[in-house]
């Protein structure tokens, strides 16, 4: 999907921003202990250039091949190893920094901000702030009901995060960036997405105790005007999204053959070496090597 997106953006004269919401392991990504390592944190990682795009692909590959445990994960050490050409936003309410702020651990949030800033380098780390208006939709439900209580809890967490990120930005001098947690494109898609979530999780739409983004149908791709209105009290966070976009200039070479290079012994031609080992190892795959095969 990234290449198709890239081509369409280029066709329209835009610089595509290609990234991934990554899962960050609590410890080393090689550790896979039940009850600890099945929990992880979210982080928004964006490619600034072609090298960053390649490093992003490397990180995603490693997260699946080496770090997978319930989710494809990477750790901070691996992030640092492949951070060149990348920048990051602190993440949604499931990020490491967000959880520290909601838990009242401001000093931990400060330390983590410095850690991630060191990983990605000067000017390449931003503090993310989101708004999903949970308090607005609470009134649609009876006070004390399970959905009302859940929305009230999420509204409280979002308020803590909004205030915490502002305080953190002031204390650390890192810029805030307004973002939206997008799970579907159009606002009208909320019910369809809710049905898909139920299918994926084996739940019924009528079930109360389940993942219910439908109770605050704000997880769609908002326009610039909608985002500006949503953050009208924090125009700097909107303006900084432009600063993030200005850092991105990806040029991906297309329409070329890009096979990996394999070292071939004794300076042989690659085709000849492949033919040689194919004949040598055919017996490992086939019990009887017939005349037609050999």
Order of helices and strands: HEEHEHEHHEHHEHHHH
Helix % is 40-55%
Specify the biggest β-sheet. Answer: 6 strands, mixed
Indicate the low-confidence ranges by residue numbers: none
List the total number of helices: 11
Widest sheet: strand ordering:
3-1-2-4-5-6
Give structural notes.
This protein is α/β, with parallel strands linked by helices and about 290 residues long. It contains eleven helices and six strands. The chain has helices spanning about 1-10, 50-65, 75-80, 95-100, 105-120, 135-140, 145-170, 190-200, 225-230, 235-245, 270-285; strands at about 20-25, 40-45, 75, 85-90, 125-130, 175-180. Helix 4 (about 95-100) runs antiparallel to helix 5 and helix 5 (about 105-120) packs across helix 7. The two termini are about 40 Å apart.
What descriptors fit this protein?
294 residues, alpha/beta
In short:
Helix content is 45%, strand content 10%. The protein has 294 residues and is α/β, with parallel strands linked by helices.
SSE diagram, text form:
Blueprint: H1 2-11, E1 19-25, E2 40-47, H2 50-65, E3 73-74, H3 76-81, E4 86-89, H4 96-102, H5 106-120, E5 125-129, H6 134-138, H7 146-172, E6 176-178, H8 190-201, H9 224-230, H10 235-246, H11 270-285
Parallel strand pairs: 1-3, 4-5, 5-6
Antiparallel strand pairs: 1-2, 2-4
């Amino acid at each position: 999907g990234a290449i198709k997106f890239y081509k369409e953006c280029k066709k329209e004269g835009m610089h595509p921003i290609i990234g991934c919401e990554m899962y960050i392991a609590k410890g080393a990504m090689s550790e896979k202990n039940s009850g600890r390592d099945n929990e992880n944190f979210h982080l928004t990682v964006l490619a600034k250039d072609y090298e960053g795009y390649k490093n992003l692909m490397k990180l995603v590959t490693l997260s699946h091949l080496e770090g997978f445990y319930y989710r494809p994960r990477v750790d901070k050490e691996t992030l640092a190893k492949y951070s060149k050409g990348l920048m990051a936003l602190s993440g949604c309410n499931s990020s490491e920094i967000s959880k520290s702020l909601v838990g009242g651990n401001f000093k931990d949030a400060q330390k983590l901000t410095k850690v991630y800033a060191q990983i990605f380098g000067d000017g390449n780390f931003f503090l993310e702030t989101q708004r999903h208006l949970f308090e607005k939709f609470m009134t649609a439900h009876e006070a004390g009901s399970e959905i009302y209580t859940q929305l009230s809890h999420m509204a409280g967490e979002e308020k803590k995060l909004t205030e915490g990120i502002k305080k953190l930005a002031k204390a650390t001098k890192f810029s805030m960036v307004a973002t939206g947690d997008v799970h579907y494109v159009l606002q009208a898609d909320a019910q369809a997405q809710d049905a898909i979530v139920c299918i994926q999780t084996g739940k019924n739409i009528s079930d109360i105790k389940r993942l219910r983004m439908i109770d605050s149908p704000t997880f769609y791709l908002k326009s610039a005007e909608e985002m500006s209105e949503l953050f009208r009290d924090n125009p700097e966070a909107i303006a900084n999204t432009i600063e993030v976009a200005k850092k991105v200039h990806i040029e991906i070479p297309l329409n070329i053959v890009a096979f990996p290079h394999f070292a071939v012994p004794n300076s042989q031609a690659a085709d000849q070496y492949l033919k040689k080992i194919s004949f040598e190892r055919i017996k490992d795959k086939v019990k009887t090597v017939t005349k037609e095969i050999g």
